[in-house]
Structures
1.
Amino acid sequence: MGTIFSKIVDGEIPAHVVYEDETTLAFLDVNPLARGHTLVIPKAQYPRLTDVPPEEAADLYATVHRVVGAVQRAVDADGATVGFNDGAAAGQEVEHVHCHVVPRHVGDGGGPLHDVMGQVADVPDEEFDGIAEEIAAEL
Ligand code: AMP
């Protein structure tokens, strides 16, 4: 069964589309965190970031790159918070990869992405080498 975003791609439910090309679509978030909050998706339904094939991932980033500037200019923003909730543990509700582009204004009361965990993790310095090696070995 398709996700709600697949239904938007297929034109089965309406959305405020701001950009479309062969592989990607951008539209306004229906519950915006700020005026102009936009979602950028691959048209094909991939549940997780790691499911997106490299070529479509490149297309997705190209659209994010275009949209980030356009959104900020359109709502006269000072910046943007841009990110993915990847997986339910990270708060992803719609299982169709989507990038949030949230316009930010000086003094808007929002925090940086670092606030998402509430505090920094207690990782001892001596563990950094091992962690980096483990990640590098997975690449
Ligand atoms: P996430 O928690 O990262 O999965 O975010 C899902 C986002 O999709 C939320 O910000 C919702 O407000 C948004 N959303 C859900 N349904 C729609 C819809 N029909 N049109 C636009 N945005 C939607």
2.
Amino acid sequence: MRIPLVAGNWKMNGTRASVTALAGAIASGCKAGGPQVVLCAPAIYLGAVAEVIAGSSVMLGAQNLSDQDAGAYTGEISGPMLRDMGARYVIVGHSERRRIYGETDALVAEKFEAARRCGLAPIVCVGETLAEREAGATQAVVRRQLETVINLNKLAEFEDAVVAYEPVWAIGTGRTATPAQAQEVQAFVRALVASRDRRIADGLRILYGGSVRADNAAALLAQADVDGALVGSASLDAGEFLMICAAAAARVKIK
Ligand code: PGA
């Protein structure tokens, strides 16, 4: 059985006051028996958020990490530092990192490895642009992104890792993939992993991300291979985020 996971990606938003209020509202609204909930706060607020969610079921996540563990890398934040602040998860290879900051497939694979080295569970993002989808290249792109990570890391490292399918054209655009589109790619991801190790594939949680909201979450989460959601803008509103968590709780997991 795969336990559903809902991760909020707050991106570069909020103030110390607003993120701690948001974390508090989400932590107190999370019901027992629901999905696992991870809040990926801006790095500078991880400590403040950790204090607020201490003792709750909500877990802490980061949005990015360095591929290095320590040293002369001005401005970078390492996996061991994130762990030290209480993070359990870290997003790796978000399309905004790839597109705006030029992160390559190879660097994303290195970051995945860096996360595993220090015991962080990576949430590795894959997904095609609109041009790639229209050119019929969706599977080729997702395969390339994922295989670069798999080839550098042993497949066993995917045991506690999470994959997020986030079509770039659906992120922050209000344009969500249809449940069928999400399912098609996410089944492809699982099959790709299963071709190497069926047991790991069966246990792998694959999230959908890209304009997930309270009103479309249930239909997405009803799909066989949609094990949860990576939520951007809707995670900045506690009420809406908790409704998405409720939709994930209702997900019937059939294996
Ligand atoms: P969005 O962002 O929900 O605002 O589309 C999702 C993400 O970037 O992870």
